[in-house]
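Listing S7. Sequence submitted for prediction.
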Amino acid sequence: MNEPQTKQITVIDEVRANIQKMSGQFAMALPSHISPEKFQRVAITAIQNSPDLLNADRRSLYAACMKLAQDGVIPDGREAALVTFSTKQKDGTWIKAVQPMIMVAGILKKIRQSGELATLHAAVVYKNDQFRYWVDTEGQHITHEPILFGERGAAIGVYAMAKTKDGSVFVQPLSLADVEKIRAASRSKDSGPWTSWWEEMAKKSAIRRLAKYLPQSTDVEQALKADEDLFMPDLPAKDHAENQALLELAQEEDKPKRKSRLDKVKEAATPVVEAEEAMPPIPDNMRRGRDEQPPMPEPGLFEPEDVI
């Protein structure tokens, strides 16, 4: 009766022990303002609170933790999160893999630390909110008055807004249809963060679109690309098959080809030909007579299999 509970405790203890063994690696990856002890404590808490993470591929779990440490964010559900999604292996089997996801608060933190922007804000707009976006000769403008106490209605869109240090304002609104198009093109549209963290993914969609027009530091660019797989398109099966065929063909062409005996004879003769071309012309009195036949090649130089 207590066997499932005992097994679950054993898995948690094993994961906790492995996370603690990675303390030295975390210390080298983390920025100075995040201690390895704090990162490990937050990561273990996140894993304990999610049975999906405990049952996911262990190697991808530890790799996702390390990636978040390198990005300087913690998996506390605000700055970042550890999410699971189905991944197809080379042998055709499927596993539950763990993916690091930097959330909007984590992106804002990275931008504040970079000093590239004065402000960056993203929000989902609901039906009962007061929202207006317009463009005039002075640039882009936006007003958003969300209903803090009351029924906001269904989501109708999302926007991201940034202000640079020189005072320029950039706004990127996306309708609900725009967001759903981005989601529909994702390889994880029906699982993972697109189902569990829709608001975060919608806001990040607007931020990613806006980021094309903003100055960026390397850290911010890496933060935006950290979970790029969640936005990458899912190729149809036909395209996957074509890509695989092209890959195999390219790999086959890269393999060293076995040389025939005729090729070896040609390669051996090439230096002799080049040497003859480099020699000075032979005087007329030393040339062979017109009717004199050249000597026949020695027997055995060519084999029957080399004859074309």
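Caption to Listing S7: primary sequence and predicted structure tokens for the chain studied. Residues 8-102 form one domain. The longest strand covers residues 117-126.
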